[in-house]
Amino acid sequence: MAINMIMASSRALTTPCSSSLTPQRPTRAKLPLITLPKASLPKFPTTQKSLLPFISIAIASSLTMVPPSLAVEIEKAALFDFNLTLPIIVVEFLFLMFSLDKIYYTPLGNFMDERDAAIREKLNSVKDTSAEVKQLEDQAAAIMRAARAEIVSALNKMKKETQIEVEEKLSEGRKKIEAELQEALVNLEKQKEDTIKALDSQIAALSEDIVKKVLPIS
Amino acid sequence: MNVLSCSINTLKGLYDISGVEVGQHFYWQIGGFQVHGQVLITSWVVIAILLGSAAIAVRNPQTIPTSGQNFFEYVLEFIRDVSKTQIGEEYGPWVPFIGTMFLFIFVSNWSGALLPWKIIQLPHGELAAPTNDINTTVALALLTSVAYFYAGLIKKGLSYFGKYIQPTPILLPINILEDFTKPLSLSFRLFGNILADELVVVVLVSLVPSVVPIPVMFLGLFTSGIQALIFATLAAAYIGESMEGHH
User: Is residue B193 part of a domain?
Assistant: First the structure.
């Protein structure tokens, strides 16, 4: 049915063209070779009328100069020549479709789908491990915090110990110094008393001397 | 009048110089039927290229893809993306169809532009892209039609045909007509683009043999890729359209 349509339309399409071309060819070859039984062709009276002067001119011009080569060269130009090629091409196409499906579309398509699925799975698993990584990071942060606190406490302890030690040593030194000072003061006092005593005993002799010198007794 | 005769003469001259072979076929006889040999030969080459490169690249898939596997993975992703945007969530079973449609048309078109087919002389006709022949494009378009009917019937059963009177029963003729215009437009778009592209390149090469045809060749490569994408996208869109619910 569709072929009939195509044939009819192709005929209708090409007849004006061939009628304008035929005068050039002495052999009166027609452009389309139509193998199907003749269908009743629609007539186009208006176009025929308008074509008439053109055809007459064409005939006149072609009669004056007929190329000898054309007569030999052109036989039948079968543009719309339907034959067994059509079903053979259909069979070839179906064969190509099934074999390409077997060696190309299905295997490669399945392979690509599987790869896509695998990649998606891997991506999802990576997303899961990111939570794990976060947990591990938190753990690490907690450990770091504990260690820092430990260090701080140890530092404080050491500071306290050293301070106590230093204070002990300081107080010890102070006590020693105080004791020495006391001793020195006691010594000084004693020496003072001694010198005062010594001076007392000498005062009498001195005063006698002074009296003797001042008051000449003799 | 002068202008017209001049243009006819120049056209004739072009035709003479370029030696363009349009609609010339290398016929084979198979059991009383005629076959276009050049189309079959090039399509076998295209199929061999596709199967061979795919088999080599996907032979031993690695988790970290190497260059060849990487390219084929990229192509598969692209095809899946096209199918998914057009068909929707149930695109899985249609990836082989859409992908093969795209790859076959794409490699065919590019082989016509890149492979030096013309070196191999045939007794008649010449080797070109397989999509250069109306048989190939119509075959692919009809496969697309069958595919979207199949998709709709599998998905919704006989209630699939309810879509013909969907907005209102008045649109029934237009809806039926669509089933014919879809393969028609698909096949003729591809056929016309590829044929026109090759013709333009051949004519330009025959007129100016150097430098000038190069941009047109690049344009042809671009068009070829776009046409392959359009064909595959439209096929997927038709399948998706027949699968989606009309409630």
Answer: yes
Classify residue B167: in a domain, yes or no. yes
* Number of domains present in the structure of chain B: 1
Residue B212 lies in a domain: yes
- Out of A4-13, A102-111, A195-204, B149-158, which region has the weakest mean confidence (pLDDT)? A4-13
B86 lies in some domain: yes
Residue A40 pLDDT more than 60?
no
B chain contacts of residue A81, beta-carbon cutoff 8 Å: 23, 25, 36, 134-135
Taking the CA of residue A9 and the nearest CA in chain B, the distance in Å comes to 9
pTM for this prediction: 0.63
Residue in chain A closest to B51 (alpha carbons) equals: A100
Provide the domain limits for residue B157: 67-245
What is the 3-class SS of chain A, one letter each residue?
Answer: CHHHHHHHHHHHHHHHHHHHHHHHCCCCCCCCCCCCCCCCCCCCHHHHHHHHHHHHHHHHHHHHCCCHHHHHHCCCCCCCCCCCHHHHHHHHHHHHHHHHHHHHHHHHHHHHHHHHHHHHHHHHHHHHHHHHHHHHHHHHHHHHHHHHHHHHHHHHHHHHHHHHHHHHHHHHHHHHHHHHHHHHHHHHHHHHHHHHHHHHHHHHHHHHHHHHHHCCCC
